[in-house]
Task: inverse folding
């Protein structure tokens, strides 16, 4: 005698399978909590990588979800940079917040790490080499805003260039600075962002300390 299955009975059979799948999916979701990660590790600076080198997709860390999500480019609203890929690994310095009241953009200090491509979510110790100050068209003109630190890994085995100071970078790899500046001033469109100033590694360290909100 054949058994007949109603839609309701079929659903009851499938429910345990669906529940197990949902639980497994949630359990496998990788989460990151950088809320208590300090800005410094000894004499080195900590950097969290959001966007690997060679990537066009905009990826940002969402502290509320404790996850990396797809972001949108300002001005275009696109999820992809409408230009060449990121020339180096891009992310942020944990434990910092550029307060809009003080002229910041409401995000952690941005940082670009020169080395081979690193996966999203990598926490790496770095040495700041210099800092750029950029301004967007709609940004305030009475202060230096939007600092971006340029750094190299603290570990010598991860370095692809030997410069660890402002002077060494300009003497041995002057084109790197030109490439990075051209990329940042072009990635949002023509005449949208301008370079206002730059400083050496000591200025970069002071900039990070200026916006540091958690001291451990």
Result:
């Amino acid at each position: 005698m054949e058994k007949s299955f109603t839609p309701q009975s079929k659903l009851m059979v499938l429910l345990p399978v669906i529940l197990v799948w949902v639980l497994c999916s949630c359990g496998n979701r990788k989460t990151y909590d950088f809320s208590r990660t300090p800005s410094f590790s000894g004499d080195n600076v900590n950097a969290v990588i959001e966007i690997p080198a060679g990537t066009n997709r905009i990826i940002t860390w969402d502290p509320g979800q404790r996850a990396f999500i797809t972001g949108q480019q300002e001005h275009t609203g696109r999820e992809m940079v409408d230009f060449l890929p990121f020339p180096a690994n891009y992310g942020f310095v944990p434990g910092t917040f550029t307060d809009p009241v003080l002229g910041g953009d409401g995000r952690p200090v941005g940082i670009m790490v020169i080395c081979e491509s690193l996966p999203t979510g990598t926490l790496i110790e770095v040495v700041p080499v210099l800092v750029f100050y950029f301004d967007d068209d709609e940004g305030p003109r009475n202060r230096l805003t939007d600092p971006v630190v340029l750094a190299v890994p603290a570990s010598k085995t991860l370095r692809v260039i030997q410069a660890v100071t402002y002077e060494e970078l300009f003497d041995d790899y002057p084109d790197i600075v030109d490439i990075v500046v051209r990329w940042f001033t072009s990635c949002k469109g023509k005449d949208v962002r301008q370079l206002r100033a730059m400083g050496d590694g000591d200025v970069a360290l002071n900039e990070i300390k200026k916006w540091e909100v958690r001291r451990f």
Observations:
- The mean pLDDT is 84.
- The radius of gyration is 22 Å.
- The chain has one domain: 34-211.
